[in-house]
Amino acid sequence: MLWYALLVLAVAAERVVELVVARRNAAWTLARAGVEHGRGHYPVMVVLHTALLVCCLLEPVLAQRPFLPALGWSTAALVLLAQALRWWCITTLGPYWNTRVIVVPGTRPITSGPYRLLRHPNYVAVVVEVAALPLVHSAWLTASVFSAANAALLTVRLRSENAALGRAVLA
Fold this sequence. Notes:
The chain has 5 helices and 2 strands; from the N terminus they run H-E-H-H-E-H-H. It has 171 residues and is mostly helical. The chain has a single domain (2-170), classed as Four Helix Bundle (Hemerythrin (Met), subunit A) (Up-down Bundle). It has a two-stranded antiparallel ribbon. Helix 2 runs antiparallel to helix 5, helix 3 runs antiparallel to helix 4 (121-135) and helix 4 runs antiparallel to helix 5. The protein is elongated and about 50 Å long.
């Protein structure tokens, strides 16, 4: 269980790094007349992702979930692949990447890196991580509940982001 706790804490630390990058990028985009969209769902997203990490640590202990090697190692690999995809997205978007939806009017969507394959590859990484991280230590209830909640949140997020990107291209 100790190594799993360290994995979850590493993911939490990675989230803190993301927030630092996002804050820097927000300042950059706002200085270029960037407009934030979908502010209402952002606090929900922060609470959801924080609660996910807490529940990843609690469920295996409270429900006495075992580590199942075939499930645990394969989902750990998925978590690592999701992190790699996320950072590919972050480096591809450069200063345009953010945890918030901030769009600079008149900019064209990025179509290189993983964005040449998918419109929203960062969300693929999020979906995989939300499902896989709890399953590393058999926390199937956390994986199920947070995957469903994340799907609902991403529905709102994607509508907001797609609308914002559509308006930015037209501006």
